[in-house]
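assembly run, all chains below
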Amino acid sequence: MNKWGNNKAWFLVAPVIVIVAFSAIIPLMTVVNYSVQEIFGPGQSLFVGTEWFKEVLGSYRLHDALWRQFLFSGLVLLIEIPLGILIALAMPKRGWGVSASLVTLALPLLIPWNTIGTIWIIFTRPDIGLFGKTIHTLTGVIFDHTARPLDAWITVMLMEVWHWTPLVALLAYAGLRAIPEAYYQAAKIDGASAWSTFFYIQLPKMRGVLTIAVLLRFMDSFLIYAEPFVLTGGGPGNSTTFLSIYLVKIALLQFDLGKGGAFSLIYFSIVLLFSYIFYQVLLRVGKGEKA
Amino acid sequence: MARIELNEIAHSYLRNPQEESDYAIKRIHNVWDEGGAYALLGPSGCGKTTLLNIISGLLTPTRGRVLYNGTDVTMLPPEKRNIAQVFQFPVLYDTMTVFNNLAFPLRNRGIPEDEVKKRALEVAEILDLTPFLNQRAAGLAADAKQKISLGRGLVRSDVAAILFDEPLTVIDPHLKWHLRRKLKEIHEQLKLTLIYVTHDQMEALTFADKVVVMYEGEIVQIGTPQDLFENPEHTFVGYFIGSPGMNFLACTLDGNVARIDGARIPLDKKTAALGRKARGKLEVGIRPIHLELSSKQIQSGVPAHVKAVEDQGSYKIVTLTLDDKILRAKLFEGKAVPENKAWLVFPPQWTRLFADGRLVK
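ok done. output:
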């Protein structure tokens, strides 16, 4: 058997290799190149080895941004997953209500991310925003996400939950609709309570879609940039400076390409590590179902 | 255990049923005796599952009442009716072990744990599930899963009845036979009321003391397997039970003789007398096994053509044509099969008369 009989097939793969090279491999290598140099200007650079990595890893600003990022992603999962399931459970199962609620839920997902930041800037203004004005009228507190860290966090969390819970709800709803009617009938015959039905039928049957939901929401929230950038710009102070915002500050505003490159690679490794862990978990869940 | 009474039941899945064809169950009025093993037999879509769900309480009938031992339970949900039902496809709580699956219906009813354990182990023993008790239910093969579903149906000792909705569809043939025997054994031991839905006549005839035949939302006959074979009360029963099904020929009456075009078939006097009083389209019906064939012309014989002979081993199925109508006869080994032309004899004691599909009586 001649294994190399059809070398022409490589021509079919070539375009993909070229595209991936231009979109991923070459930029990544450029970043690797930056990360080991001090760049003064075009053509002027100095090899510094692992200096940048040491500096970035030792920087309390990175540590702060990283913990902030974990806190944010953790809160996102803790709020959005249960809330999404609750919404999915409350959604109608037949009739016109199904399409009405599906469309309503999908609306936040269709809005450009920059616009979402702007919407929430206006929504929380204490003078003309519905939310800010209501808080002001009810409690007398002037809600200001540009001045108070807590207000900034509340706004960012509310925005995130409003924006992305629908995705979790849609996934959970799809999972719920896929459960055969016989399971509910059997649960009734077996005398199961609503809670047991949820815990022993609905939740296990939704496990697949919920794992995907957790994965997507973790990744997305870990990489969040546009919405908090528009809303708070990372402030007040550094209170909403997440990893991506911090990275852009270093790389584009301070034009510190070496440090930015090192930071990028570390950020990339964290994302890769968590993707790998989640992927393994997902794989195990899949196997558990079959085995 | 209970005696289950269905009182003028009708059910439609539409909100405002108008015509008779809107009803999945047209009119059912019958009693299921305590401790009986019933098979509910009928083609797909005849309303078997609907009827079962009405008995169990998963559905509330559009009209009529359901009584358990004389108590009206029509409006009660299944968990308040104390009934067990096993579905066509295995339903499992996959995060639980096999033992917990079996124990689930008992635990939900607050039965003390030592009693739960005793019952679950007993049922596991009957169904050969003991080696799997501590395994997660999700990992088992399809037949083991269905046995768990059966087990959850059998585990409660005090149920009014156990309803089976084609429970052996997913099981392979050898095991099917084995499980059916198990069910029969359980029935003989515990004298439970069992209602077993199937569209497979073999399954129905081997499992049940009494077979209830349903057709287009109605019960057309309730009887022992022998009754259904020998005295079908509806052309559907004749056609559905037996292989091949009963032969039917449209006819007119002339005294004690049924006329089919030119042919004359003598009937017994009683049948003919009933037939003269009946209204509607008349048909004669005869089982293939009762049709006699002769290669020589005989008096009272009806001439027909032999079209095909299928050898089925211990018997042969002969396909004949009588003018444009097709008849089948079942001949046992050793009987001569005529070639080309044959004379058919319809023994009067096995020749039935139907008016508009129903046996004249």
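The radius of gyration of chain A is 24 Å.

DSSP finds 13 helices and two strands in chain A.

not gonna interpret more than that til we talk
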